[in-house]
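Internal QA ticket QA-208
Title: Verify multi-chain structure generation after dependency bump
Assignee: T.L.

Test input:
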Amino acid sequence: MTGKERIARRIAREFHDGFYVNLGIGLPTMIAGYVPAGIDVMFQSENGMLGVGEPPTDECADPDLINAGKQPVTELPGCSFFASEESFAMIRGGHMDMSILGAMQVDEQGNLANWTIPGKMVKGMGGAMDLVAGARRVIVAMEHQTKDGASRILKECTLPLTGQSVVHDIVTELCWIRVTAEGLVLTEVVEGMNVAEVQARTEAKLLVSPDLCVMTVDALV
Amino acid sequence: MTGKERIARRIAREFHDGFYVNLGIGLPTMIAGYVPAGIDVMFQSENGMLGVGEPPTDECADPDLINAGKQPVTELPGCSFFASEESFAMIRGGHMDMSILGAMQVDEQGNLANWTIPGKMVKGMGGAMDLVAGARRVIVAMEHQTKDGASRILKECTLPLTGQSVVHDIVTELCWIRVTAEGLVLTEVVEGMNVAEVQARTEAKLLVSPDLCVMTVDALV
Amino acid sequence: MNKVVPTADDAVVDIAPGSTIMLGGFGLCGIPENLIAALVKRRITGLHTISNNMGVDGFGMGLMLEAGMIASHIGSYVGENRRLEALVLKGELDLTLIPQGTLAERIRAGGAGIPAFYVPTGLGTVVAEGKETRKIGDRTYVLEQALHADVALIKAWKGDRLGNLVYRKTARNFNPAMAAAAKVTIAEVEVLVEPGELDPDHIVTPGIYVNRIVVGAAYRKPIESKFIQSGGAL
Amino acid sequence: MNKVVPTADDAVVDIAPGSTIMLGGFGLCGIPENLIAALVKRRITGLHTISNNMGVDGFGMGLMLEAGMIASHIGSYVGENRRLEALVLKGELDLTLIPQGTLAERIRAGGAGIPAFYVPTGLGTVVAEGKETRKIGDRTYVLEQALHADVALIKAWKGDRLGNLVYRKTARNFNPAMAAAAKVTIAEVEVLVEPGELDPDHIVTPGIYVNRIVVGAAYRKPIESKFIQSGGAL
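Actual output:
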């Protein structure tokens, strides 16, 4: 199991039947593949769709039916389409149970940076700022460190923020971290790792939950 | 021809092909019956319809298809239905070419009072305040005087306002009055009346247009 | 995911006295008549209602008023309800009248995460009294606040068990905006269909906004202008 | 009432240099590709564009960029257009990036007569810099202004000669909001139908918002993720 798969599988276990969830581009999109059996989750795509299905075969791809990553998708029964201002009314209005997105940096205050590197990258924030400001629960799904081994979980973000104090949870291939008023609290660590090893890979100070446990990624049945 | 019919026929002559118009309850509703041949006007009803048709026969009345006066109506080809917030986005956003409504009082500043009599009447303004604030041109269609012979066109409204400086034109069975920055300007008088006779029935000071003419009510063909 | 409840009584069973309730409809058109009837059976009091109108004497919200359930009301027009007029003039019901478009937009804002916005409507009238005004560009505007509710009772034409809804003709009115502005939204429909039967391009209220859906047991749907002429004898 | 114009060239013939233009679409999905092509033929310059994206190198608004027509742009994401990135880093194009939901709502506000409104989005980030913030209830919000345009170029699936429009699947996106926010709205459609053929309950953009309607001569509708992978060789 790759680290990314572990992250996706673990987060999928958080879903409840009837959840409405927005998945960011990249790693978070993988989560849709691991929804536990018997759980109905409706995935939203902020370009104007609720009830996003799996990617189509190449022959069935419809240019009028894409997700926010501009990739072709399919319709689930009971899906619906709506305009952009409606889609973001839904997001901003607190109707999404969960928004799961990637990050470049997260910090001890739950600040998130995932949209720009000044002077280097001109892309735009897309819907990320709206999602983190509006969803009931914001989960960051990302690899614990950069390719160079630098920590992405910092005392304070150095890149321009996507949102201020918006992150509720951080999930990496190593651990689950809850963002609390007291700081970052380690609640789960993968088998074969211990708290000291996770802290060594993390710039931010990690508090340890009294209920710390091993991260389990199998679906609950 | 009754006075009300004269008012309705005269205002109908103001329509251009392609106009979108909201007609208030009562006298203004009559105007729909006098749209000149060859002119397509789409009537809006603020409860959520564009393209309102004539009243149905009793047998054909559909409780799901009413106008803002709660009366059954019919559909014209090309009509559309929308929600209340959309309907008033349309009105407030300046998309209606014309809003025509009744009044209890209008004054020299173009102030309009048509929704309440303190201590006597608890009804509500409905959509009237939105219509006068949003339409490109607001025409008051009303009988020149009250049943008791009092002027409805005043130096200053005494009743609570529906809108401040919102009226563009006042049309009565006697005359057409334009509201300008200089005051109320008499532009048309019905045959058999003169300026002095109209002024005698009007509390507000009337200026006389250099282009004053006789009010003609036949449709332009 | 199944939001269907068996009866209107079940749908409203936990609405608490003193709740703020939005009720869809324009006049008697598109009102949740079965949910209102179920609520009236419960006789809970002290309700704060938000609805464009107040039904008529003898039907719709008029029944709630007659049962003494309503403590305050926000709406735009209540002219067809003589009982309300009397209560208000006697000071026994707290009535707030606001422009219909402002009402609709305040409800939409409540659902859309917009706490406040500016409108030109009502400037220089009593509805602007006590409100902040502000010049933006060359015009002065009034600041209006979002409206929220504990419960929204709405009416649609067809719906599915996921809560997706479509409306029929002018019975749409305030229902979609209210669906999004309440903590719990309860929808009654005339027809329940299977998920996928409603064309996804035609769905007006996506199921995310709806918590419970019930098929109305019976629909009277009186036409208000005739109802009033005939003295409620329909 | 007949808003149909024969060709896309006719539809855009009077758009002036220096105009502010809204363009519908999300990525390459639901963009007015025929109107853009017609505009590119005219090579007018100094345009101020408002659109969620900026096409890609070689298609959609990317063609306008390559023709040097765009002076400034407001959008939420331009990551697929390498040429734009270069122009911006060199300071040759004035780019304003704003959150997608704020962009959509500012456009809606422009059409709805709401000059400004508060949102939680972007508080404490660069997008709130220089903007008024305000505590409402227990949260702090950012004041955002309505967006307007001289012209909106939009794309729908079907339309009639009165300008009524319906959209197909996720090709709806920004098109309906933009239709209402411009002085002149020009819609291209795949299919023109007779008034009455579109179910009035299904119409998304009522004709009141549309000034001109044209049937697109041809539709390529490339799928962006594949278009980019294949280097625009579709």
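Spot checks passed. Chain B has one domain: 3-214.
Status: verified.
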